[in-house]
Amino acid sequence: MIAPTHVLAWFGWTTVDPVATRLVAAALFGIGIESYLGRRATADVFRAMLNLKIIWSSTAVAASLWSIIEGAPLATWGVFAIFAVFLGVWIRYRVALASEVG
Prior knowledge:
Layout: H1 4-10, H2 18-37, H3 43-69, H4 76-101
Helix pairs in contact: 3-4
């Protein structure tokens, strides 16, 4: 969030929109902090957060894959892999929660 152009240059990005980069960072912070704050919430709250995370990570997987196809820097594979792993974990928890509840 502090120096997006400088930091992303380390990973091969040559063109960086600092506003868009900071908005992505804000989303990451928001979801991460809410996950921490809601870690002991009710099953309904946890389910709603999982739904949000599944939607968010699945679109991030699609967006990063699309960017890779269009020639994004090699580091985009790392972004893709991270979000794919999170997507798998969150789907697993969502399925487990659904089987416990009903």
